[in-house]
What does this fold into?
Amino acid sequence: MTSLPDDPRQALMLLSSIVEPGDGELDDLLGEVGPVAAVERIWSGDVPERLGRITGATVACTPNPAGRAADLVSATEHAGARVLVPGDPDWPEQLRDLLLVCDADEPHLRPPRCLWVKGRGSLASVCRRSVAIVGARVASEYGEHLADDLAADLSEAGWTIVSGGALGIDRAAHLGAIARGGPTVSVVASGVEQPYPAANRSMFDLVVECGLLVSEWPPGASPMRHRFLTRNRVIAALAAGTVVVEAGVRSGARNTARHAAELGRVLMFTPGPVTSSHSVGVHQLAREPWEARLVTRAEEVIEDLTGIAGPMATPPPSPRRPFDSLTEIEARLVEALPRGYVVEDVRLAAAAGVPVPKAAEALEKLRSDGWVELLEGRWRLAR
It folds into this structure.
């Protein structure tokens, strides 16, 4: 006789191990009968044809689904992780917004049914003020420097950095937040016990110390191409806005950007050289009907996320030159003085288009400030 799990959380873990996240047909079944009954229906074959095809091989080789669920619990504990499900205090409610963008054409955009989380802190609390920074895996030195600086400054301002843990821009964003002691969330496309890519292993260890690793897949799950695209919707939904720093024409970062725009999140991008292949996809965002905002520094990101312009979100100050301190009349007189020559005040006033009394008054002020010198009744520029 088939042994079924009787705990809803374990049932959701089991279902997530056999059906890819965001699947509309499974989620409809879950909404209709709940997790425990959904497992029973799948193992009895009482499901729609497509769902039966997807789960058939697993059902055939798993006579004891309760035992498989128990193995998942053990693997989760061994990985030092925990499982969150909707309704938990730590569950980020903003993930429900994915229900607003999934439709018959894209049913795989449904909200996560459960999340494996590794690290300290509450995912809901950590993501309450969060911004996603994403971009190319093969990034330029400029792009990595910009992502690092943005993440560091946003972290210092109290924002959590969300990204995907990839090489390039993602890595720079995570490390920028960590460098300032801020939390960061890495949403990965594999099990949390062995996050991908392996080259970022030391970075993932730091993420666990400072923030959270998050996955929709159980321990032991391998990264697959389609899983990176699937997890992008979670990155976009968790954050209040997404900043794209470098992206090619075909880019997972652009996929995240599309999700952010469709969710009504703030979509931002940083510009790069128009001749750079690293920035082609970023610049294209500005030409698409997503109302993407150009940002160059953390203060502008915060302004776009909050709608509030802070003291640092004002335009950068123009470089100040000594000439800027002069009045208009003083500036005209200085410009009218030929270098290396001396000029009578009447002739100088005429060249500058200034009345003689005004010129005389301004020249005295310029002399006291060290701009001009008076030699035998005539004026010249000070050396």
